[in-house]
Design goal:
Blueprint lengths: L1 E8 L2 E8 H4 L6 H5 L5 E5 L5 E5 L7 H4 L13 H5 L5 E3 L2
Antiparallel strand pairs: 1-2, 2-5, 3-4
Length: about 90
């Protein structure tokens, strides 16, 4: 299942998508420690599995919180995306 965390406003759509099926295969959950803003956490989903999720308090401000990792030009690889060995995590903007 793809879980989308974020929001849409007049300037665009700002979501972090996590493929929870693929996330289950990563017992280290490397994305949690890779995020310099500490917005990713491990939660227990509806099926009692431990998966990554974006913290509730960060979901409505992703555009601003993630801005340091996403400059408008010469964008380096995103730390959270690069840390995921299964490619489970992506950003929409």
């Amino acid at each position: 299942m793809i879980a989308n965390y974020g929001y849409t406003d007049g300037s665009g759509e700002y979501y972090i998508a996590i493929n929870t099926d693929d996330c289950l295969e990563c017992p280290q959950h490397l994305c949690v420690n890779a995020c310099p803003k500490n917005i990713i956490e491990i939660i227990e989903d509806d099926y009692d599995d431990l998966v990554a999720a974006v913290k509730d308090e960060s979901r409505k401000a992703l555009k601003y919180i993630c801005a340091d990792c996403k400059p408008s030009s010469e964008r380096p690889p995103l730390p959270c995306v690069s840390a995921c060995p299964n490619g489970s995590l992506s950003h929409t903007w």
